[in-house]
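Subject: two folds for Thursday's group meeting

Dear M.,

Sorry for the delay on this. The cluster queue was jammed most of the week, so I only got both jobs back this morning. I'm pasting them in the order they finished. Each block is the input sequence followed by the predicted structure tokens. Could you check whether the formatting survives your parser before we put anything on slides? The first protein is the one we discussed after the seminar.
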Amino acid sequence: MFLNRYDFTLDVNAGGASTSYSSGTVNGEIRQITYTPDGSSPLDTGADLTITGETTGMAIATLTNIGTAAVSWAPRLATHTILGAAALYAAAGVAVLDRIAMSNERIKVVVAQGGTSLKGQLSIWVG
């Protein structure tokens, strides 16, 4: 399997916000997201990240209070039957999850409550 890594510099302004986009269009399944805090001025503990498709607004991840330590996520979405009902492992059970697919759009990363002029690095692997 071939993976592409998209890197985002999270450099928030004085209001604690930033918006960044992948360098090109993304095609494939979101495999993993990794946050690496800046060594001297990491984002605030209460920083929130909203990661979506730029054009469709399709949700990839909503990560709240990410903290000041490196962390990774493997986001998944709930699946549905052909009738639109939630697919469950058992009656009234746990949702069946699957990878999130992207096609011909950029990834958008919005940071809120990141502190004042602080930094971090986000990497998203797609394959």
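Second protein, same layout:
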Amino acid sequence: FTPTLNRTGSEIVLLNLISVLDKDIDARIISYYANGDLKNALSESLSVTELYQSKSSSSLFSKLLHRLEKNFTVAKKLKKQQDCIWYINTIVLPELIDYAMKWNIRVIVHSHELEQMFQLLSPIQLKNLIDYPELIIANSAASAAVLKKLGRVKPIEICYPAIRTSQIKKDEKAYFLKRKELGIAENTKLWVMAGTLDDNKNPQYFLEAAQAVLQKNPTCKFMWIGGTPNKNFENSLKNKAIELKIADAIIWTGEIKNDFYAYFNCADGFMLSSKKESFSLVTLEALLYGLPVVANDCEGVREIVGKDYGKIVANAKEMAEEIIRINSLDCKTDTAQLRKRAEEFELEKTGKQWNKLLHQFLNTP
């Protein structure tokens, strides 16, 4: 089970793992909501069921439709899955835990979340999540620590997110072509942040750091790769950039699907502004491109960059100071070392660990 089959970090992690699932394990994919754009990326051999055909909104009609689906259609669909072990991707599908408990179904939960996400659960939902699953797979030591703090005593295994590292390489020709298309001069340093424009990704912090850098390096440019359905929030950020007098130095790409890596490829550095991250796939991608990484101390990213593969900072001022230092002529980045670090999270390696965990679970009565 996965929430939407959209391009969120947790769902990309699941689809990557499913692509290396051992052939002797039969898997069915169930998307909590319908019409996710990753559906087409799944193998044709995988069956896909969608529970809710419409997402709930504030309208009375939508709420009524959602309630009817929950009481009739969804229950009927879930009843057909009683003979399966349920692998629930993310902690934010508490209804599935309730159904599983009712029918005494074995459950594995894959947790990608830190403290702030657990606040979405009611006290009883939280208790059931912590106590009921036979196994919880945490995507990092940071997310595992949260589960233990909340009272988890049953098994927790850490399985880091992984990607096919061989598919991500710096393309020098494409670097210059994309920058020319974007109007970025050859001698301009371009720093990027990638992620949905939302409060947790902290675009305000991004703008504050950019402003501080531009006061010292006025030719520098910054790009946010990603968009948001909340146009009011997006417009408020663009207005903030105008207010800070840095609008001309900021590129907002909006939502990108198929061309994401082309934008990432034309960067000179990566800045992670997030408030909280249990891990950070996009940081791995930055390392694969050989980009220097400067990250806000958002917890999980520490497990990637440590002390040797990037810089963890406490605030926007520190981030700006580090970017200015890296932009200096005296500072050189060992791109081969960065790529080697990212390759430790190769999908084939992690996939073996994941399949081993699944086989151990399946062989346990």
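Two things I noticed about the second structure. The mean pLDDT is 93. The chain is about 40% helix and 15% strand.

Cheers,
T.
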